[in-house]
Amino acid sequence: NQVALICSGDAGIYGLASLMYELGAKHPETELLVIPGITAASSGAAVLGAPLNHDFCVISLSDLMTPWEKIEKRLQAAAVGDFAMAIYNPSSHRRKDYLQRACDILLETIEGKRPCGYVENIGREGTRAVTCTLRELRDREVNMFTTVFIGNSETEILGDKLITRRGYQAEKGEKAE
After folding, report:
1. Cβ neighbours of residue 61 under 8 Å, at least 6 residues apart?
2. pTM of the model
3. With contact defined as beta carbons under 8 Å apart, do 3 and 31 qualify?
């Protein structure tokens, strides 16, 4: 039989590909083929502009499979490393304050005026993109259909777009015009 398992986004990024490989190990005669999709980090970044245009990381705030203490360490490391970030699962009915908690952790290292943004309902009806600062983001209400973007030290809000410069001018000490 041929069977297709379809999930949203990319099956290998917070998706079902790893589970299928784990289950597939018990059935070596079964062929598994993962076809890449577009994850919310990529599709949401395109809606916002280019916030992940340099080194970045993706962090989920869901503590269903990862202890919150580990999530905290990852947020701290990303802040110290000056990574742009895509944040998945920023809130849920049970975890209403997790984005606020994450912002508080980031604000220990990152300035409050750091450019950020978020996109709700990426690729769905009602897609909405918002740019703001890290301090403003702390008090925003978002849901599970939202991907949050935290800029790095080179990120700017240009008009209504969130842009992380790749470094062409930055490496020369020049500002983009």
Report:
1. 71, 87, 88, 89, 90, 91, 95, 98, 99, 102
2. 0.89
3. no
Nearest Cα residue to 24 out of 11, 13, 14: 11
Contact criterion met (CB below 8 Å) for 136 and 99: no
Q: Over the chain (177 residues), what is each successive 10-residue block's mean pLDDT?
A: 84 88 91 91 97 96 94 98 97 89 98 98 95 98 95 96 81 55
The C-alpha atoms of residue 120 and residue 164 are separated, in whole angstroms, by: 20
Q: Which candidate, 74, 68, 122, 77, places its Cα nearest to that of 98?
A: 68
Q: Which residues contact 119 (CB under 8 A, 6 or more apart)?
A: 40, 44, 47, 48, 127, 128, 129, 130, 146, 147, 149
Reference 74, options 60, 84, 88; nearest CA is 60
- Ordered by where they begin, the domains of the chain are 1-37 (no CATH), 40-164 (3.30.950.10)
pLDDT score, position 13: 87
Backbone conformation region of residue 161, classed left if phi is above 0, alpha if psi is from -120 to 50, else beta: beta
What gap in Å lies between CA 34 and CA 31, rounded to an integer?
10
Closest by Cα among 83, 75, 86, 71 to 122: 86
